[in-house]
C-alpha cells in the first residue's frame, strides 16, 4: 500500500491488539516515534496463544482462523513472512455437520462444496451456491478492499461493490433459503453467524458472503505456532521502523500517557485500541458531550463461552469430511442456528447454542503432543452470561461426534467474565467489540463523518469497535492512523501559515 508522507512527532497507541499494532506501524512508517502501551504481560489482545489444557498443547485464546488476515490489504503489504509468519491450511477449510451424518464442506477446491451440497440428489444446490457467491469470489480483492473500509465511503470499485451489496443487504436467513438445500442453507447460516446477532435482519448476509468467499479464494488459514505468531511479526515490523511496545502498563487516564510512555512532553497523537467503554474511562470528561453520550449508549453484543479441550485420538465426527476440517460450525439446521442467535441477542441462553469449533492442529501439527490434540470451541451466549454453558457446548459436540467425552483428557473454560478480565475490550464477553445492529454496522462506533476521531485534537479510537469491525485484519487501526496523520498534517499547515 502507498506510504504516508514522512512526518515528525510522537504518538502513543494504547493497546497492542492487531489494530493497535497496525495503527502503530502506519504511524511509524510515516516518521513518528511510536510507543505502544499494553496492560497485559504479552502483546496481542485477542490474538494470543497459550497452553491451557495439557502440557505441549497450544490453544489460541480468541482469534484462531485468519481469512481476513491473509486477505487484509494492509497486513499483506507488510511482508510479515520476513519475521517468521507462516500460514497453514487444513484439507477442508470449513465443515458444517448435520444430523444423520451429512455435512456441508467448503474450501479452495470448488468440488468440495459442489459435491457436499448436491449429495447425489440432483438439487443443483452447488450451482446455486456458485451463483450466490460469484460477485464476491470473481472480484475478491476488490470486494475486500471495499468491505474493509467504513460503510460510508466513496467506492473505488462501484460496480463490484454494487453487485456485492445487492446480496449483502439481505437477511442471512433469506440468502440461506435461496440455496434450497439443507446442507447449503446451514453452511451459509453458520458462516453468517460469525456476526454475533439476529440473522433475520437486513445486512446480515454480508458476513456470510465475505467470509464464505474468503474460504473459497484464500481459505481460512491458521498461523503456524499459534495466532501469537501474527503479533510477533507485527511487533518485529514496528521495531524495524523505530517503534516499541511496553507491556505491563495499564492506562487509566489520558494525562498519564506521556509519563507511562517515558516521553518528555505530551504526544502529538494518542490512539486507543479500546472499546468505547475503555475510551470513556481513559478520556472521561474531555470527550465532547455528543461523543460521550454515543459511547455511553454504545451497545455490546452476545458473548462467547470458550471451552478448550485436550482430546486423545482426535474428535470422532460422524461425518468423515469433518475429520479433515480446520473449522466446524456446530449448530444444526438454519432454523436452529437462527433461533439460537435470536435468543442470545435477546439475552436468553439457548438450549442448543451455536458453537464454533477449531481443529488447528490439522493444519499445524506442532500444536499437538503425540496423539493428544487441542480442540478449540466457543459458544454464543448472552452478554454477561453468568451460568455454566459448558454442558451445552459438550452436548452439541457429542451430538455430531458421539464418544467425544470419553476421549477428553483435560478441559479449560473461560466464560464472559473471564474473557473480559483477559481482555478489557471484551465487554460482557463480547469478542466482536460491539453489537451487529443495522445502526452500528453503518454508524460504528457513533454517527459522524470520521468514525475514528474522538472530537479531541490528536485523539482517536482504532479498535474493532470502529469500522470495519472485528477480525484480525488490522484495517481499523490502519484507517484510524490515516485519519490521525491527515489531521496532524492539516494542523501543522494551519500553524505554519501564521493564522
UniProtKB/TrEMBL annotation:
Alphabetized SUPFAM superfamilies for the sequence: FAD/NAD(P)-binding domain (SSF51905)
Protein name: NAD(P)/FAD-dependent oxidoreductase
One Pfam short name: NAD_binding_8
InterPro entries assigned to the protein according to its UniProt record, in alphabetical order: FAD/NAD-bd_sf
Cross-referenced PANTHER family: DEHYDROGENASE-RELATED (PTHR10668:SF105), PHYTOENE DEHYDROGENASE (PTHR10668)
Amino acid at each position: 500500500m502507498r506510504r504516508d508522507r514522512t512526518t515528525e512527532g510522537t504518538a502513543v497507541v494504547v493497546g497492542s491488539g492487531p489494530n493497535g499494532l497496525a495503527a502503530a506501524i502506519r504511524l511509524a512508517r510515516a516518521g513518528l516515534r511510536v510507543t505502544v502501551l499494553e496492560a497485559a504481560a504479552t502483546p496481542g489482545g485477542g490474538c494470543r496463544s497459550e497452553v491451557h489444557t495439557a502440557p505441549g498443547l497450544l490453544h489460541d485464546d480468541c482469534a484462531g482462523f485468519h481469512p481476513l488476515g491473509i486477505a487484509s490489504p494492509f497486513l499483506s503489504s507488510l511482508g510479515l513472512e520476513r519475521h517468521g509468519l507462516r500460514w497453514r491450511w487444513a484439507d477442508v477449510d470449513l465443515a458444517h455437520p448435520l444430523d444423520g451424518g451429512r455435512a456441508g464442506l467448503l474450501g479452495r477446491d470448488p468440488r468440495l462444496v459442489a459435491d457436499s451440497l448436491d449429495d447425489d440428489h440432483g438439487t443443483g444446490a452447488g450451482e446455486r451456491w456458485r451463483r450466490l457467491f460469484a460477485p464476491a469470489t470473481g472480484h475478491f480483492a476488490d470486494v475486500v478492499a471495499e468491505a474493509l473500509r467504513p460503510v460510508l465511503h466513496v467506492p473505488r470499485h462501484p460496480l463490484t461493490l454494487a453487485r456485492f451489496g445487492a446480496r449483502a443487504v439481505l437477511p442471512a436467513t433469506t440468502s440461506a433459503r435461496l440455496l434450497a438445500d439443507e446442507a447449503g442453507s446451514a453452511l451459509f447460516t453458520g458462516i453468517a453467524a460469525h456476526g454475533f446477532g439476529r440473522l433475520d435482519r437486513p445486512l446480515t448476509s454480508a458476513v456470510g458472503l465475505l467470509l464464505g468467499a474468503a474460504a473459497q479464494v484464500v481459505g481460512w488459514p491458521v498461523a503456524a505456532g499459534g495466532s501469537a505468531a501474527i503479533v510477533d511479526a507485527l511487533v518485529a515490523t514496528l521495531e524495524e521502523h523505530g517503534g516499541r511496545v511496553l507491556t505491563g502498563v495499564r492506562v487509566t487516564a489520558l494525562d498519564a500517557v506521556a509519563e507511562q510512555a517515558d516521553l518528555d512532553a505530551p504526544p502529538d497523537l494518542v490512539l486507543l485500541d479500546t472499546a468505547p467503554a475503555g475510551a470513556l474511562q481513559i478520556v472521561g470528561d474531555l470527550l465532547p458531550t455528543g461523543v460521550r453520550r454515543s459511547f455511553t449508549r454504545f451497545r455490546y453484543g452476545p458473548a462467547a463461552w470458550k471451552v478448550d479441550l485436550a482430546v486423545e485420538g482426535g474428535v470422532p465426527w460422524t461425518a468423515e469430511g469433518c475429520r479433515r476440517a480446520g473449522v466446524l460450525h456446530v449448530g444444526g439446521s438454519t432454523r436452529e442456528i437462527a433461533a439460537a442467535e435470536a435468543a442470545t441477542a435477546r439475552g436468553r441462553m439457548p438450549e442448543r447454542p451455536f458453537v464454533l469449533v477449531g481443529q488447528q492442529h490439522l493444519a499445524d501439527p506442532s500444536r499437538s503432543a503425540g496423539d493428544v490434540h487441542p480442540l478449540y470451541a466457543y459458544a454464543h451466549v448472552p452478554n454477561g452470561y453468568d451460568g455454566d454453558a459448558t454442558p451445552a457446548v459438550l452436548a452439541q459436540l457429542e451430538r455430531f461426534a458421539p464418544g467425544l467425552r470419553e476421549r477428553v483428557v483435560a478441559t479449560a473454560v473461560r466464560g464472559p467474565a473471564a474473557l473480559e478480565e483477559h481482555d478489557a475490550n471484551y465487554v460482557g464477553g463480547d469478542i466482536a467489540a460491539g453489537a451487529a445492529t443495522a445502526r452500528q454496522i453503518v454508524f460504528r462506533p457513533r454517527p459522524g463523518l470520521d468514525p475514528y476521531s474522538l472530537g479531541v485534537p490528536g485523539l482517536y479510537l482504532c479498535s474493532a469497535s470502529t469500522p470495519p469491525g472485528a477480525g484480525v485484519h488490522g484495517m481499523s487501526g490502519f484507517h484510524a492512523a490515516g485519519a490521525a496523520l491527515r489531521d496532524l498534517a492539516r494542523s501543522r499547515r494551519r500553524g505554519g501559515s501564521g493564522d
